[in-house]
Amino acid sequence: MRDIAKEVYEKMKVGSAAWIRPVAAKGDTIDVFQSAHDGAKQLADDGLISIVKIQRQEDGLIDAIRIQRLA
């Protein structure tokens, strides 16, 4: 399983913001994407990013995460 949050983080410049979303072309599904939140939380705990917003579907599943790179 790929770490979507880390992939997005590595492509960002310090101070920039980005959305993390599942990419169907890479085989991501909403169910599998839920683990991206765990990856983002770990990066936030390490002080590398700030989680700005978590967007959820009506059923409560996360479908997008807005992050800002701090380091």
Structure notes:
The protein has 71 residues and is an alpha+beta fold. Helices cover 34% and strands 28% of the residues. It has a three-stranded antiparallel beta sheet, with helices on one face. The model has no long low-confidence stretch (mean pLDDT 95). The chain has helices at residues 4-11, 30-45, and strands spanning 17-20, 49-56, 62-69. It is globular.
Strand order of the largest sheet: 1-3-2
- Beta fraction of the residues? 25-35%
Q: What is the succession of H and E elements?
A: HEHEE
* Average residue-wise pLDDT: 95
Q: State the share of residues found in helices, binned by percent.
A: 25-40%
Distance between the termini: 25 Å
* Major beta-sheet overview: 3 strands, antiparallel
Beta strands, count: 3
Contiguous runs where pLDDT drops below 50 for at least 5 residues: none
Cα-based radius of gyration, to the nearest Å: 11 Å
Shape: globular
Category by helix and strand content:
alpha+beta
- What is the overall number of helices? 2
Provide a quick synopsis of the model.
This protein has 71 residues and is an alpha+beta fold. It contains 2 helices and 3 strands; from the N terminus they run αβαββ.
Task: List descriptors.
71 residues, alpha+beta, 3-stranded antiparallel β-sheet, 2 helices, 28% strand
Provide the fold topology.
Blueprint: H1 4-11, E1 17-20, H2 30-45, E2 49-56, E3 62-69
Antiparallel strand pairs: 1-3, 2-3
